[in-house]
Amino acid sequence: MDVLIFLVPLAIGLGLVGLFAFVWALRSGQYDDVEGAALRMLSDDDL
Amino acid sequence: MTAARDLAVYVRPAGEGALGMELAVEGIHCGGCIRKVEQGLKKLDGIIDARVNFSNRRLNVMWRDGTLAPAEIVDALERIGYKSQPFEFRQSESADIAESRRLLTALAVAGFAAMNIMLLSVSVWAGNVSDITPWQRDFFHWVSAAIAIPAAAYAGQPFFRSAFKALRARGVNMDVPISLGVMLALGLSVVETLNHAEHAYFDSAVMLLFFLLCGRYFDHAMRKRTRAVAGNLAALKVEFAHRMMPGNEIVLTPVAALRAGDGVLVKPGERVPADGIVINGASQIDESFVTGETLRRAVGAGAAVYAGTMNYGGALDIRVTASGEGTLIDEIERLLDKAVMAKSRYVRLADRAAGYYAPVVHTAALLTLTGWLIAGAGAHDAIVTAISVLIITCPCALALAVPVVQVVAAGALFRGGIFLNAGDAIERLAEADMVVFDKTGTLTLPEPHVANAGALDPDLLRLAARLARSSSHPLAAVAAKGFANEAPVGGAVEEAGHGVRAEVDGAEARLGSLAFCGVDESGAGEADDSSRIAVSHRGRHAVLVVRQVLRADAVAVTSELRRLGLDLMILSGDRAEAVAPIARALGIAIWRGEVKPANKVAALQRLRDEGRRVLMVGDGLNDSPALASAHVSLAPIGAADLSKAHADAVFLGEKLAPVRDAVVAARRARALMRENLWLAVIYNVIAVPVAVAGWVTPLIAAAAMSGSSVLVTLNAFRLHAALRRKVGAVEVGAIAPDFPAVTGDRAWTS
Fold it and tell me: Which of B39, B76, B272, B703 would you call most buried, defined as having the most Cβ atoms within 10 angstroms of its Cβ?
């Protein structure tokens, strides 16, 4: 079971990547207007 | 209007050579609106970016310096079909956003840590009953420690800080046992891991923080949303003043941008934008908004006029004086300072519960420690058991019991058009046993209405409304109200000081003074505070009596409030003759007229000394000290800014029903808060003996903690269903585009 020494920290490291991605998204304002984002994707005029 | 508008006060620099502005936009409903607004603005030359925030109905615009005047942006939006009003940048709002981001980050960190630690803990629990080796268990515990300690140090800050503050003030709040529980759980776990023990409580500590942060975050998000909508409503009601520039040029300036010494022209039918001295002109001023007095006051050169009063007569030139120079405003501000200082800090239900809870739990832990030592257990086992008592009683459910209910209740009130200003307003509202009303603008509608509309010929009334649309007289605006769809009469001529006349169906129709319409005045000569105008056409005529009218549901709501066990009272700044009929109509036996602001505060103080908890409902500037000094207070959205700032909640609409709804909802919410607190007590009654006996394992702690939290949360959601039936919904999601007080006010000034 020595493989746990690598696998557990690796799993947590992946989780940390997710956490940092969330914090980055939050800081860059991705959560400032969630309702607007839901409506914007319906209009396909970004040609 | 042709005068230029000066919006410079709202513009802020936005980077290199660029300017920015934030606007509240009315009537954005769908994705199509977002596109229309953004694309429409981007067509203007010089616009760098235009972005709609749909969640709070605001628009952020950036443009290159020197290419556009801010008023052009507002005009462009108007052409596209949206009313908008720039926002003044407020420090409190950006602090709100920062706080909300901090809480959400803390929540994410706690959630991440709780999930990963639980993953390791479940492995350990499963391994303990099968074949985990001590080496593997220690490894899992150390990894848990490496996650839990930094996570708790970051995510626990809101609780640690608040607990520290409470302790420094020699008090106890709910955050004290929480912080203690978290720290002890972590400390004990590290020590146990060093000793290669079977049990560690890393998961409990972090899960506790996660649940509690959920409660805090939702509470904060609800309040932020309420404030954003209330802010939009306030911005859309911003009024403009005709400011006189050198060279007699007139510029429309937002009232907020007026400075002492500015010259302002106040046309008939407009509100006086700022406190000032009349330089030129003579008029009658309706000061009901400031003093509650409905009889108009004649003013001439040299007279002082107050912001918010309505000019009924001729045009006035005024010079703005610094606020505070006027005697009335001065007095009100002095009273306000006193009232705010005298206000005893309200101890919230949760903090009161914590006051009982913390000593009991800490004593129980101490008794456990000494009990086990006396019973002959080792020091290590006794300490571990005592700490496990603290961990399992860590007030997760107790700390969630109140905020969860608060979020649900604030949400229901929000949908009902009631915006809470103060966090503890719900609890104080529920305690009210007496309601004191202001009369003018609170029991009555803020603006005068045609009082005898029901008794008049509907055709003549419609004709009056159509004629009225060609007149700028304030009384005409009253006649036009409620007939927004009627076309104005073509070719109408206004004779200043008399009325309007026009050809309708081949005969002359007139609207104006009684003499102008050829109506004999002798039959309509009551000396009261109503105004009369007449409409005549083809020999038929009708006299419209214009005065302050009761809010439509005032009678029903006051009798319901009485049925809820509340005593009612009226304290008005208006004359006794004007208050008496209102009191009679509403069946309110206790009333007083001609009450000065200081006397209102004194009357409330007397009631408080008698042990009454008073809910004050008022709108005028003269009410603001009373609103600040009452146990709890409500103000209609049309109230003076100062009054709104000092009220605990603000309500929308032309009805009085929100007062009843607020009381009903608050009482329900408080009952549920108590129920939740009792649920938490029952949980502890079961959990503490188990912990004292030393049977608690981390598995039991985790199950008990999450079970009780889920239980109180689910219980709080019962309020959601209950209030949905009780509180009438007002559509505020789109910043109330059809909301009468917003559109109505615009009709007055535009």
Answer: B272
Q: Which residues from chain B sit within 8 angstroms of residue A47, using beta carbons?
A: none
Same domain, B396 and B531: no
Q: Say how many domains are in chain A.
A: 1
Among B310, B340, B370, the domain boundary falls at B340
Q: Which of B47, B71, B89 is the last residue of a domain?
A: B89
Q: What percent of chain B has pLDDT over 90?
A: 20
Q: Do B280 and B389 fall into the same domain?
A: no
Average pLDDT, rounded, for chain B: 83
Taking residues B28-49, what's their average pLDDT?
87
Separation in Å, CA of A24 to nearest CA in chain B: 10
What's the rounded Cα separation, in Å, for the pair B616 and B339? 14
| Residue whose C-alpha is closest to residue B425's, from B343, B346, B342, B337 | B346
Q: Is the residue at B659 inside a domain? A: no
Please tell me the predicted confidence (pLDDT) of residue B139: 93
Q: How far is B39 from chain A (nearest CA, A)?
A: 10
C-alpha–C-alpha distance, residues B459 and B457, integer Å: 5
Same domain, B364 and B428: no
Query: B582 with B640, same domain?
Result: yes
Q: Is residue A37 part of a domain?
A: no
The catalytically annotated residue of B203, B286, B438, B619 is B438
Chain A environment of B116 (Cβ under 8 Å): 11-12, 15
Q: Is B30 on the interface with A (CB under 8 A)?
A: yes
Assess B221–A contact: CB distance below 8 Å, yes or no. Answer: no
Pair (B671, B587) in one structural domain = no
Residue B522's pLDDT band (cuts 50, 70, 90):
low
Co-location of B364 and B505 in the same domain: no
Q: Which of A1, A43, A45 sits opposite B136 (nearest CB)?
A: A1
B553 Cβ contact list (under 8 Å, min separation 6): B655, B656, B657
Q: Is the pLDDT of residue B115 over 70?
A: yes
3-class DSSP assignment, residue B502: strand
List of chain A residues whose C-beta atoms are within 8 Å of the C-beta of residue B38 = none
More confident residue, B750 or B505: B505
> Nearest residue of A to residue B104 by CA position?
A26
Kindly state whether residue B740 falls inside one of the protein's structural domains. no
| Residues in chain A whose Cβ is within 8 Å of chain B | 1, 4-5, 8-9, 11-12, 15-16, 18-19, 22-23, 26-27, 31-36, 39-40, 42-43, 45
Is residue A22 domain-resident? yes
Nearest to B35 among A4, A32, A43 (CB): A43
Nearest to A34 among B39, B55, B115 (CB): B55
Nearest partner of B394 among B219, B169, B163, B105, judged by Cα: B163
Host domain of residue B205: 94-229+350-406+667-726
More confident residue, B304 or B610: B610
Residues A35, B31: C-beta atoms closer than 8 Å: no
B438 as an active site residue: the answer is yes
| Residue B661 included in any domain | no
Count H helices and E strands in chain B, helices first.
Answer: 23, 28
Model confidence at B747: pLDDT above 50: no
> Helices (DSSP H) in B419-510: which residue ranges?
425-431, 458-468, 474-480
Mean pLDDT of B662-667: 92
Q: Which residues pair with B650 in a beta bridge?
A: B419, B635
Domain span at residue A26 reads 4-31
Chain B residue with the nearest C-alpha to that of A22: B108
Cα separations in angstroms, B677 against B29, B141, B171, B402? 41, 34, 20, 8
Residue A46 lies in a domain: no
With respect to residue B399, please indicate whether it lies within any of the assigned structural domains: yes
Cβ(B349)–Cβ(B673) below 8 Å: yes
Residue A10 falls inside a structural domain = yes
**Contact between chains at B54 and A35 (C-beta distance less than 8 A):** yes
B223 with B354, same domain: the answer is yes
3-state secondary structure of B219: helix
Q: Let me know whether B120 and B182 are in one domain.
A: yes
- The minimum CA-CA distance between B125 and chain A, rounded to whole Å, is 17
Tokens of B8: 């410079």
In this complex, is the C-beta atom of B115 within 8 Å of any C-beta atom belonging to chain A? Answer: yes
B474 close to B269: Cβ distance less than 8 angstroms: yes
